[in-house]
Structures are given as structure tokens and as C-alpha cells.
Amino acid sequence: TLKDNMENKISLELDTQNRVEIYFHGATLTSWICDNEEKIFLSSKSVFDNKKAIRGGIPIVFPNFGPWEKGPQHGFARIKKWTIKDSPRKIDDTLRVVLSLKDDEETRALWNHKFELEYQVILGVKSLKTNLIVKNTGSEEFDFTALLHTYFKVDDIGKVSVENFKGLNYIDKVKNGANEIEKREAITIDQETDRIYASTQNTLFINTGNEILTLDKNNLPDTVVWNPWIEKSKQMSDFDDEDFKRMICVEAGKVSSRTILKPDEQVAMTQTLKI
Ligand code: TA6
């Protein structure tokens, strides 16, 4: 049921043990309580000024992953105000809300295309599905990259491992974009890590130290693994110096190649998190 529908965010409560919180700013899901436990990391220093991207949660990266010449890095979707397209509704044993973002003068000034984004958030018992649909509502084709920049909450990064990447190519942004191959069964984090794995499996396993969280994805072929570690944490004003110990980003995306949409075409990209 829709609870405390404030002007900045909505909370969806499936039952007392399972609920999510979504800010209209960037349609940023900032909390996923599952079996009464928070699974998503949100920085205690995150700025909620409806300007800066929220530090944590699941920021939506569109129409560009990474730096670009048309505005802030990672595009404008995560810093625009989204609206409710379909109010929260019970569907079988899940609760679903749909949010949307359409082009406006501000976005067209940065990136001159007409689009509609639809973001379906579907909360189930022990699962959270997020489906991002990109529609080209204009008269010319455009291309984009997109990604769900999910911050997972962990107790101790030293106990975390991420699996199912062995043998895959990755771009190592910590080594000036060097092209490497993952040799490990399990990715562990003991230094700044910022890697773009291409053509990854559609099922990934995140061992948070407490449990194995499964990330199933569809039409999100790439996966970014990021932890800022010590130095980068100090450089982020909206992130505690010690917060690198309490989070890991495993980000399902479509970023290794640009997706082209012709007029009236659309594409859906889905991530389902399960305990
Ligand atoms: O997803 C990893 C990354 O691209 C890192 O390089 C780092 O920049 C991170 O995103 C956070 O970016 P942000 O713009 O949210 O500070």
C-alpha cells in the first residue's frame, strides 16, 4: 500500500517485513527492506537537494554511462524529477509502481532527442525487480548507454565476494582503461576497484558476508564492479571516509556498445534482486 506519499518520495509496503522507498529525484530507490533487513546502501552524507545525484540506492544512468560532453557524468536521468505513471498496485503477491521521465526543454538543451523512460519497480517477498524501458518518441533515431548503479549494503567489505565473472574481459578504469581478463572464481575487494565487465552472465552472485544475494538481469549484458576504497572515499563529500567498508556497487548495464533506437522503437532492461 502507498504509505506517506510525500512530495519527495514514496514508500511502498508489501507487508511489515518488505518495503521500498523511492525518491522522485532520479526515481532513486534508496531503501529495500527485505525480511526486515536493509539491503541497499545509502550514504549518511547524501545530499537531498533535488540537484545532486543521491549517493547510494539505485541511481538510473541514462543516456550516457560515464563522462560525456553533454552535461554531468552518467547523464541526467538520475538528477531529474520523475513522476508516477501508475500508482502502486498489488499484482498477485507483488506490489508495483511505475514512474516515468519524459524529455523537456532542459534535457533537449543537453541531448536533443524526444524520449520516454518508464521505470517499473516490483516488490515481492524476498525479491525486487526493476525494469527500465526506453522509448524513442521522436522522429529521428538516437543512441544511448544505460545502467542501474546499484549500491549494495554490506557489513564488512573484507567479507564480500562477487561471483560468475571468471574468464571474462574487463576494462580496468583504475589501470587507465587496461583490457584484462578475470582469472578469479570470486571477485574480492582489497583496493580501489572500478571495472567494466563485458558480456557477463545473466545471473550474478553477491556474497555480502551475511547471505548470497542473486542478481538476475535481462538485456543488461555488462556489469560494473566499483568500490572507491580509501583515497576516493575521502574525495567524495557526500560519502563518509569509512563508507567504502560498508558498500559495493554491482551495476547491471548496457554500456559496452551504444544502443540505437529508431523512432517509435523501445527497449526494456531488467534487473531482479533475490535473497
Ligand atoms: O560506476 C562506477 C563509476 O563510473 C565510478 O567511476 C565512479 O565515478 C562512480 O561511477 C560514481 O560516480 P558519481 O558520478 O555517482 O560520483
UniProtKB/TrEMBL annotation:
Gene Ontology MF annotations: aldose 1-epimerase activity; carbohydrate binding; glucose-6-phosphate 1-epimerase activity
Record InterPro entries: Aldose_1/G6P_1-epimerase, G6P_1-epimerase, Gal_mutarotase_sf_dom, GH-type_carb-bd
EC numbers on record: 5.1.3.15
Binding annotation for substrate: 55, 73, 78
Active-site positions on this chain: 149, 251
GO cellular component terms, semicolon-separated: cytoplasm
Protein's GO biological process: galactose metabolic process
Reactions mediated catalytically: alpha-D-glucose 6-phosphate = beta-D-glucose 6-phosphate; alpha-D-galactose = beta-D-galactose
Keyword set, alphabetical order: Isomerase
Enzyme class (EC, first level): isomerase
Pathway noted in the entry: Carbohydrate metabolism; galactose metabolism
Domain of life: Eukaryota
Listed PANTHER family: APOSPORY-ASSOCIATED PROTEIN C-RELATED (PTHR11122), GLUCOSE-6-PHOSPHATE 1-EPIMERASE (PTHR11122:SF13)
Family membership noted in the UniProt record: Belongs to the glucose-6-phosphate 1-epimerase family.
Summary of the function given for this chain in its UniProt record: Mutarotase that catalyzes the interconversion of beta-D-galactose and alpha-D-galactose during galactose metabolism. Beta-D-galactose is metabolized in the liver into glucose 1-phosphate, the primary metabolic fuel, by the action of four enzymes that constitute the Leloir pathway: GALM, GALK1 (galactokinase), GALT (galactose-1-phosphate uridylyltransferase) and GALE (UDP-galactose-4'-epimerase). Involved in the maintenance of the equilibrium between the beta- and alpha-anomers of galactose, therefore ensuring a sufficient supply of the alpha-anomer for GALK1.
Protein name in the entry: Galactose mutarotase
Organism: Brachionus plicatilis (Marine rotifer)
Lineage of the organism: Eukaryota, Metazoa, Spiralia, Gnathifera, Rotifera
